[in-house]
Each structure stands twice: as C-alpha cells, then as structure tokens.
Amino acid sequence: MLKRILYPFILFIIVINCKAQDQFKPSTYIGINAGVNISRVAFTPHIDQNPLTSISGGLVFRHLSEPHIGLQIELNYAGKGWIENLDTLGSYKRSLQVYEIPMLAVFIAGSKVFRFSFTF
Fold this sequence. Notes:
Layout: H1 2-17, E1 27-39, E2 49-64, E3 69-85, E4 91-100, E5 103-110, E6 115-119
C-alpha cells in the first residue's frame, strides 16, 4: 500500500523538476576586423613584380538565431594591387580599393566558455 502511494509521488516530484531543454535566447554581436593584405597578380606571360602591402578592415554583424547556427554579414574594405619592376625606368604601381559585402553562414561548436566558429 505504501509503495502504491510513494512511487507515484516520487515520480511526480521528479517529473516536475525535470527540464528537457533550456530556452535559447537569440544573440547579436557587432564588431570590427582589421589586417594587412599582401597581394600580387599572376600575369601570362610572367612579369617581374613585387607584392603590394595595404590595409584591410571592416564591420561584422553576427546574429545567432539557433543554439549553433547563425548568419554573419560583413562590410569589408581591402586594398589590392601590385608593383611591377621595370628594367631601368623604375617601377609601376597599380592599386585597387575594393569594398566587399559577404554574407556567411555561421556554425558554432563547443560550450559558452570555449567554442569554435566555422563560417561558410
């Protein structure tokens, strides 16, 4: 008789305190990126050239709508080009300024303390 009352009561207490999943709260991040470009151009036929060094940087907007999946949009600036070595006349420098707006899928693995982010 005691088992018939005690077992359902214990089962009821366990079921009330169990949670199948925590509620996920979407998160949004805004940041910047910066770096250096060292670029050259492959010509056919080959010409003697040095790489052109320039800056790159941009803004990053990342929104995680699911626990491990999100969307990342960037607005990037990059300087590209080359420096052609001429025989006795010096050099010829050609530089391009490029603005890019990539949209990437973000996949996150790991915990909140230590996690990896993969973008495609």
